[in-house]
Design goal:
Elements: H1 7-11, H2 16-28, E1 40-48, E2 54-61, E3 75-79, H3 80-86, H4 94-103, H5 117-122, E4 127-131, H6 134-140, H7 145-153, E5 157-160, H8 167-180, E6 187-190, E7 194-199, H9 202-222, H10 239-256, E8 261-265, H11 268-274, H12 279-282, H13 293-296, E9 301-302, H14 306-320, E10 337-340, E11 344-349, H15 352-374, H16 383-390, H17 393-400, E12 412-416, H18 421-432, E13 436-441, E14 455-459, H19 465-479, E15 484-487, H20 503-528, E16 535-540, H21 553-573, E17 578-585, H22 596-605, H23 610-614, H24 625-635, E18 647-650
Parallel strand pairs: 5-6, 9-10, 12-13, 12-15, 13-14, 15-16, 16-17, 17-18
Antiparallel strand pairs: 1-2, 1-4, 2-3, 4-7, 6-7, 8-11, 10-11
Helix pairs in contact: 6-15, 10-19, 18-24, 19-20, 20-21
């Protein structure tokens, strides 16, 4: 631990609330303290109401905000005295607690207050910080965790036994704090949950958190439980392992009832952990903190027997659901974390972002488990406590905030020729529908074309089978498989009549426009047949297939042959639930082939303005790359679910084609 406080940064803050934002972000920047929406901070201020009367207000982190990026708008103002009064009630049901929090906000257009708002209110300090520090959890998640905490901190912290978050926890903290806090108290440790610090100002509260967690880290170091470096292992790679990963993704998707992303992490730490001789013991205790369960499930799956995992989850639900206060409906039984000796750590999510969150959480969980093991043995909370949080309505609400999944959520698309023109537009259309997209292009700019967990840009020469296989293996490792393939890459050589067409030029065009696509289809087939919703291939053809023109023999013939290849594949692959359709665009001028000078010259040649030339079709409309891309994406969707082997023009109506 080290303090990230800088006087220059703090001096730029114009209010106590801005200081609250500043130190909250400092906490959020340290992943050993806070992960993906975890943790909580607050500040107590005095403000004037509409009548000009002063009123104490608690500004507490609002639901859905992340401490690393939180802004002032992420803190919800709630009337402090009302929260303190709530803490004195003997009982308060969750729905009524939320109602009381929301109805006592001082502003309507703010996020719902944290369920820990009452807990923050009862602590008699202006600033309160709460984190799920790895070092603290590693110590508390042991058989004698409470004794260790008291040994480390003495009377500087109040120790709270585990109670499910919410009203009961707030009331217990109020009672314990009133009875046990003294002049030396600077924090509070919640066993199996996390740690609080508090202070009279932002710096004091923040640096007390750093000090307290630092003392926990020092304790782990003194007991040889800090440096848990993994043993060196060798990762397996290759196309066969990639196919095994895709099969695992298919099985998990069936168990979940929807397509999922499965991201493989074969780093030394993950592989070493998955290969431990005691993995069936240390990894089957439960999550590091209960709130992780909504992301990771209670237990990771060991190996690849999805059916056995599903049955185990059903037994878990059937055991604890009858004990719940109200009836529960079972969530999907698919794993979210897989530990496998060959694959390493596989993180599962409905999107690449979700899978990334799962991977981050379990990366820290491995450290916590190993450090607790070094202290004498990792021990998580009983399954009943984890079930109560997993099926807690207030926790489930966090997941529902994402809304209805997009059409291609959990699915993976590969687009060739993706750095410009139609290919680039296809990437954007597929991303907009929720797909994870792998973009290939000879141009290196494809690697930085988009940001985000759901995009992977790879430079690749598609005429090299070795390069493509490497790219495909990387794509599958990143996302788990392949659902959609858009064959767009190609070249359009300069006009040349047959009598002048050189063999080398002919072969070059065929190698890129035809041979490479045959190889792509062949190598992608094993993955497409494992697609949870069936594989889909869209071939970007050309108007020259149904209506060739003079001077384009190599291009027209290569595109026609590719289209014929697609028709044969449609016949052969239908039994594998793979559908293949072709689009034939024409006069798409917003691509790299068409400069303003070339457009002007061609328009002049036909005696037209540039605008007239762009719309020189039956419908008198301009066809753009986005028009083609949107139709390509729709061909991968439900509207074309019963169509294969089709040709569809995207040309505004070409009289020769018609």
């Amino acid at each position: 631990m080290h303090s990230r406080w800088e006087d220059s940064g703090a001096s730029a803050c114009g209010s106590e609330l801005e200081l609250r934002v500043y130190t909250s972000r400092l906490l959020g920047q340290d992943k050993s303290l806070v992960l993906h929406g975890g943790g909580n901070t607050s500040v107590k201020l005095v403000e004037k109401d509409i009548f000009g009367e002063e009123e104490p207000i608690l500004y507490v982190k609002g639901s859905g905000w992340d401490l690393e990026t939180i802004a002032a708008a992420g803190f919800t103002p709630v009337r402090l005295e009302h929260l303190k009064a709530l803490a004195k009630l003997p009982i308060l049901a969750d729905p009524e607690m939320v109602n009381q929090l929301v109805t006592h906000q001082t502003r309507a257009a703010v996020p719902v207050p944290s369920v820990e708002a009452i807990l923050h209110a009862i602590l008699p300090y202006p600033y309160v910080d709460h984190t799920h520090a790895d070092a603290i959890i590693a110590i508390t998640n042991t058989a004698d965790g409470e004794a260790r905490v008291r040994d480390i901190y003495g009377d500087t912290v109040v120790v709270i036994p585990y109670v499910m978050p919410g009203f009961d926890l707030a009331r217990l903290c109020a009672e314990r704090f009133a009875a046990e806090a003294g002049p030396n108290t600077i924090g509070m440790v919640l066993l199996n949950h996390g740690i609080f610090s508090f202070g009279q100002n932002a710096k004091e509260s923040y640096e007390r958190m750093i000090e307290l967690v630092g003392r926990a880290e020092d304790y782990l170091k003194r007991h040889s439980a800090w440096d848990v470096a993994p043993s060196a292992v060798t990762a397996a790679h290759g196309m066969e392992l990639a196919r095994e990963l895709a099969k695992l993704r298919s099985d998990i998707s069936k168990a979940a009832g929807f397509p999922v992303i499965v991201a493989r992490h074969a780093d030394n730490k993950s592989l070493s952990f998955a290969r431990r001789a005691d993995i069936s013991t240390i990894a089957q205790q439960g999550p590091a903190t209960p709130d992780h369960v909504i992301r990771t499930k209670r237990l990771p799956m060991l190996g690849r027997d999805v059916a056995a995992y599903v049955e185990g989850y059903r037994r878990y639900f059937e055991t604890y659901e009858p004990q719940a206060k109200e009836r529960k409906t079972m969530l999907d039984a698919a794993p979210r974390v897989v530990l496998d000796a060959s694959l390493g750590l596989c993180a599962v999510g409905r999107s690449a972002q979700e899978a990334g969150i799962v991977a981050d959480i379990y990366d820290h969980t491995m450290d916590i488990i190993l450090r607790a093991t070094a202290l004498g043995g990792y021990r998580a909370l009983p399954a009943k406590d984890i079930f109560d949080v997993e099926y807690w309505d207030l926790e489930q609400a966090k997941l529902r905030k994402g809304g209805k999944p997009l059409a291609f959520s959990g699915e993976v698309a590969l687009v060739t020729g993706a750095a410009s023109g139609i290919g680039k537009a296809c990437v954007e259309s597929l991303l907009a529908r929720g797909a994870a997209v792998v973009a290939l292009d000879l141009d290196a700019k494809v690697t930085a074309m988009k940001n985000g967990a759901n995009f992977l840009g790879l430079q690749c020469d598609l005429t090299s089978e070795a390069q493509f296989k490497q790219a495909l293996e990387q794509a599958v490792a990143s996302f788990g498989g392949l659902d959609m393939l858009v064959l767009n890459a190609g070249i359009f050589p300069g006009g040349c009549r047959i009598e002048s067409l050189q063999t080398e030029e002919w072969q070059k065009v065929m190698r890129i426009n035809l041979d490479a696509n045959l190889m792509l289809m062949r190598e992608c087939h094993p993955f497409l047949k494992l697609a949870p919703r069936g594989g889909r291939v869209v071939v970007i053809g050309s108007k020259n297939v149904p209506a060739p023109g003079p001077g384009a023999a190599a291009y027209s013939a290569s595109k026609a042959a590719l289209n014929q290849l697609a028709r044969v594949a449609a016949l052969e692959w239908g039994s594998d639930n793979i559908r293949i359709n072709s689009l034939h665009p024409n006069a798409v001028f917003d691509t790299g082939l068409w400069t303003e000078e070339v457009l002007a010259a061609r328009a002049k040649h036909y005696g037209l303005t540039v605008d007239e030339y762009k719309k020189n079709n039956v419908l008198k409309t301009e066809v753009t790359s986005r028009d083609v891309a949107e139709l390509a994406a729709e061909m991968c969707g439900s509207l074309f679910a019963k169509t294969t082997g089709a040709w569809l023009p995207v040309d505004g109506g070409n009289d020769r084609v018609i």
